Amino acid sequence: MRTPPNATTAKSTPDVRHDWTREEAQALLGLPFNDLLFRAHSLHRQYFDPNAVQKSTLLSIKTGGCAEDCGYCSQSASAPTGLKATKLMQVEAVLDGARKAKDAGASRYCMGAAWRAPKDRDMDMLCDMIKGVRAMGMETCMTLGMLTKEQTERLHDAGLDYYNHNVDTSESYYPEIITTRTYQDRLDTLQHVRDSGINVCSGGIIGMGESEAHRVDMLVTLATLPEHPESVPINMLVAIPGTALENQDRVDPLDFVRVIALARIMMPQSMVRLSAGREDMSDEMQALCFFAGANSVFVGDELLTTRNPGQSKDDALFNNLGIKGIAAALRDHAPQ
Ligand code: SAM
Ligand code: DTB
Ligand code: SF4
Q: Would you say 95 and 134 are in contact if contact means Cβ atoms under 8 Å apart?
């Protein structure tokens, strides 16, 4: 495993545990807010610069028409969201986007495709995208759905730094949200990614109608993996018209902050990403999330199909909070 950027201690530290129980996690989540945040922030300071946030930019390299039925997603063919489906983008167009993202201060470029899984015929183009983005000095991330062992190895050999594949929620709540693939399918893909040497990015969504126990169980699943994901995106549901979750009530902002804090405590060396939903968060809510241990965000005007705070809004927030960016740390052993 690559040491996360800015991590100051080795992973043998007693804070980095893989034997969390749901009772322990539930007890942490039930602490008075200030006690929970103090604990999370103290750990955060121990492992990371508290005033540094890693910035990634997302690009949808293949949009819409997806065969899966994820209830939150605008890109599922089964959801009447009015989204126009596109083919896989050409490599040069993807690289143009990456150049702009780099100029805007992103250290990582995340390329997402609305697929159940990539087809083998797409692999050459995907590998060329990875090589081209890395040649610009940015870290690469992809999220393409399920992967076979062979596909994962090809992405690794092209130099892929991170693969994003979320567990999304707890195993017990998962069937309420997705029926076209299983929780175990997700864990299998994560295992391929881990085995290949690509850094693992895996998290989930808060605000899909799940209970506190489901949130706890999702984090216990991630924190009891043999190695914690290097990156843990915590998304706040973006309720998209036409999806099954379009009328979902907004999550209580302080409950969302509590989940960030719990993720920080249970996976103290992982980057915790404040992901989707920032457009609907106040500056104060985001500031509390950074205090609670979030140290990564998506920057730019768009996520995959929805809005994100643009550069000027984020620059103003980060300047106000005295937060700086974290530089890219590329894997150095990728065969090209
Ligand atoms: N198709 C691939 C897959 O599902 O693995 C990659 C793209 S998918 C959009 C990546 C992740 O984005 C999902 O697993 C989910 O956690 C998150 N996501 C998608 N739509 C969202 C929404 N409306 N609100 C919050 N998070 C969302
Ligand atoms: C993740 O956990 N969040 C990102 C990324 N991984 C690929 C995606 C958020 C998508 C939000 C809804 C949209 O823009 O379509
Ligand atoms: Fe398809 Fe991914 Fe959206 Fe699910 S989350 S419908 S797999 S694009």
A: no
Rounded distance from Cα 5 to ligand 3 centre (Å): 29
User: Whose Cα sits closest to atom 8 in ligand 3?
Assistant: 114
Distant-in-sequence, close-in-space partners of 48: CB < 8 Å, separation ≥ 6: 6, 7, 8, 295
CB 245 within 8 A of CB 205: no
Measuring from each residue's beta carbon to the nearest atom of ligand 1, which residues come in under 6 Å? Answer: 72-73, 112, 114-115, 143, 145, 165-166, 168, 205, 235, 237-238, 240, 276, 304
**What's the CA dihedral at 121, 125, 130, 131 to 10 degrees?**
120
CB 36 within 8 A of CB 289: no
pTM of the model: 0.94
Point out the residues that are catalytic: 66, 70, 73, 110, 141, 201, 273
What SS3 class is residue 112? strand
Indicate the Cα dihedral angle 330, 271, 319, 331, nearest 10°: 0
Distance separating alpha carbons of residues 175 and 170, to the nearest angstrom: 9
Question: For residue 76, which atom of ligand 3 is closest to its CA?
Answer: 6
Average pLDDT, the chain: 93
- List, for residues 201-238, the tens digit of each pLDDT value: 999 999 999 999 999 999 999 999 999 999 999 999 99
Residues whose CB is less than 8 angstroms from the CB of residue 237 and which lie 6 or more positions away in sequence, other chains included: 72, 205, 206, 207, 208, 245, 248, 251, 276, 277
